[in-house]
Design goal:
Helices cover 40% and strands 18% of the residues. By secondary structure, it is α/β, with parallel strands linked by helices.
């Protein structure tokens, strides 16, 4: 079932979660154990992230170095299939540009279509480690808009090989990312909003936001979208603080602003156990206010850990 169908048929705000594939060497049980405690809240869908390849420099006998690529978190497509099989739940695999040619992307979309997966979230993805700028594959999509257009073409039965005849069409529901506080590479908010508008006009069906800790920024973002005739569902992404280190790590990594009240409360904590409780309470209040504002879904970035999300959901749903 498509994300947009879940939303249109819902009578109240839905609950959804996002998980990470396990590190290479771990089994599927590590995923199940992180999801099982949250199933009582009946998540409408589960997002499964995709992490691009990384590389290490391996020294050769002649003193030179070879760039050896690794994949630290494989298995997004297989995890989606396993979750559907075990929990009979809809999944949303992430598709990224980095590390994939257009041919590999097409093959992944074919696999997803064969599995009966109705949804994808299209993202450019991060730069490869140790590279300052994003570098696409030689025959890959250079950004999320190009990737989105490839999915749309497949929905219309158009493959890379234009000589293929009598093609079947897919019907993926396509999600894209949105940034209430601006994507860090955009020169200003207007430019970032214009980019989002291009993705919506190209066929995006819904938006999931970057995490934020000030609900007013989300509501302002939604208002600005509606003024630009962006009328698809906008799903807020929520992540509770769990450690004091995140006061500096989250703004650095995700380029977001933390409210003074939250920063002061975390600064006053003696240890991370206390920080986690502050983060839970903040996220509960965030969630209640957003739910009162009639958001379509509350989407929680769980990072594969259920404890904090369960504490929040038990007070909201």
């Amino acid at each position: 079932m498509k994300v947009t169908d879940h939303i249109s048929q819902a009578k109240d705000t839905l609950f959804s979660i996002e998980i990470l594939p396990p590190l290479k060497g771990k089994d599927i049980q590590s995923i199940f154990s992180g999801i099982a405690p949250l199933m009582e809240f009946k998540p409408a869908f589960v997002d499964v992230t995709y992490h691009r390849e990384e590389f290490v420099l391996r020294k050769r006998k002649d003193g030179g170095f070879d760039k050896v690529y690794t994949r630290k978190r494989p298995g997004t497509v297989a995890i989606c299939a396993a979750l559907m099989n075990k929990y009979h739940i809809d999944t949303v695999p992430h598709l990224i540009c980095g590390g994939f040619s257009k041919e590999e992307t097409e093959n992944a979309l074919i696999d997803l279509h064969f599995l009966g997966i109705d949804n994808v979230l299209v993202l450019r993805g991060d730069n490869i480690k140790n590279e300052s700028n994003f570098v696409p594959e030689p025959d890959g999509n250079k950004d999320s808009l190009e990737l989105l257009k490839q999915v749309v073409r497949m929905n219309n039965g158009k493959y890379l090989d234009e000589e293929i005849e009598n093609t079947s069409t897919s019907s993926f529901c396509i999600g894209v990312s949105g940034y209430p506080e601006k994507h860090f590479e955009a020169p200003n908010m207007n430019k970032d909003m214009a980019w989002l508008k291009q993705k919506v006009d190209a066929g995006a069906d819904y938006i999931v936001t970057q995490m934020f800790f000030n609900n007013q920024k989300y509501f302002e973002f939604v208002d600005n979208c509606r003024k630009m005739d962006i009328n698809i569902p906008i799903i807020p992404g929520i992540k509770p603080l769990t450690t004091k280190k995140q006061l500096t790590a989250l703004p650095k990594i995700f380029h977001i602003d933390l409210p003074d009240d939250l920063v002061n409360a975390v600064d006053a904590c003696k240890d991370d156990k206390a920080v986690k409780q502050v983060g839970i309470e903040w996220a509960i209040q965030q969630s209640k206010e957003l739910k009162a504002g009639k958001v379509p879904v509350l989407h929680y970035y769980t990072m594969g850990v259920s404890e904090t999300t369960k504490a929040i959901a038990s007070q909201v749903f």
